[in-house]
Amino acid sequence: MGPDAMNRWAGRHRLLAAPWCLRCLWYLSCLCCAGVVQAAFPERPLRVVVPTAIGGPSDLCLRAVAEVMRADLGQNIVVENITGATGNIGLERVGNATPDGYTLSQASAGNTANLAARPKLAYDMLNLMKPVGKVCQAAFTLVTSPALGIKSVEAFVQYAKARQGKLSFASIGHGSSQHLVGEMFAAATGLDMTHVPYRGEALVAPDIAAGRIQLMFMAGAKPFLDSGMIVGLATTNRATWAPIPNLPPIGKSSVLPGFVYNGWNGLFAPKNAPDAAVLRVSAALVKALNDGKVRATIKALGLEPGAGTPQELAAQVRTDITKFRGIIEQRRLSFPE
């Protein structure tokens, strides 16, 4: 053994023979170095897949947030809309992407409703995606036709009970969150109403205005309310909903005490994405949601800024799926495949 080899051998054995506290310090220094490497994320642009059409409230909300997140992350964020199969195509595209934190997806309460309604067909975001943070949240607005002359939830329930089986409520599709919340409303009030699915809220509004549809829990009601096209009775938020402050919470009515539901959209990463990358993006999201301009943009869309933490979003997903599966079982609902 030459002198150099003997010195290396002696160095290694001195480390092994050193007190355990010194060895711990050495290992910690290695971990710190690894942390410095991880802290370099992101080193290239990020991609966010939005599984809904461009220009909708959720899409615009995300784009407003992404604009501020770019500055904090020091990288561009490319937003790509991939629609189809009630959001499953976009979610699957991200779920199958390299789990390095550079490919993310937007998802919403609509996706959790779809998972509860069609577990065999929907993308399993509960088990195959990792929450990053909630971007926006929304209350539904219980709306009806001006022709009915009804101004309160109590008056509508009284009107509907006198016409059991003769009234209809709308949603944006079988198994959508609007559909399932409508079923919750019917179950809680004992009403017998026919569900009518549409392809979008803009298509429902004229039929509500004309009295062909009597009820809907609408996510984007504000512009239709502002125009006088439809009438709002209450919102599903726990307290007064800031974007529509003139309507009371439905849960404070005498016929539906405690009734609460909030829609949301958030960011998700593939299941095996590094925790360090997820937390870095989550921190940038929280910072963006505290930006005054971003908050104003989100509120102008009739939404409220989200909380931005992975833990809260994970809890929201679990709560939604439990609630939706409960009403599906209670009402014995079935859905077209």
Structure summarized in a few sentences:
The protein is 46% helix and 18% strand.
Describe the structure.
Helix 3 crosses helix 11 (275-289), helix 5 packs across helix 13 (310-331) and helix 8 packs across helix 13. It is built from 13 helices and 11 strands. It folds into 2 domains: 46-137 and 263-331, D-Maltodextrin-Binding Protein, domain 2; 141-252, D-Maltodextrin-Binding Protein, domain 2 (3-Layer(aba) Sandwich), CATH 3.40.190.10. A 6-stranded mixed beta sheet has the order 2-1-3-10-4-11, with helices on both faces. The protein has a 5-stranded mixed beta sheet with strand order 7-6-8-5-9. Helices cover 46% and strands 18% of the residues. Strand 6 (167-171), helix 8 (177-189) and strand 7 (193-197) form a beta-alpha-beta unit. It has helices at 3-17, 20-38, 57-73, 88-95, 109-117, 125-128, 153-161, 177-189, 201-209, 222-226, 275-289, 292-300, 310-331, and strands spanning 46-50, 77-81, 103-108, 129-139, 141-144, 167-171, 193-197, 215-218, 231-235, 262-270, 304-305. 42% of the residues are buried. It is an alpha/beta fold and 337 residues long.
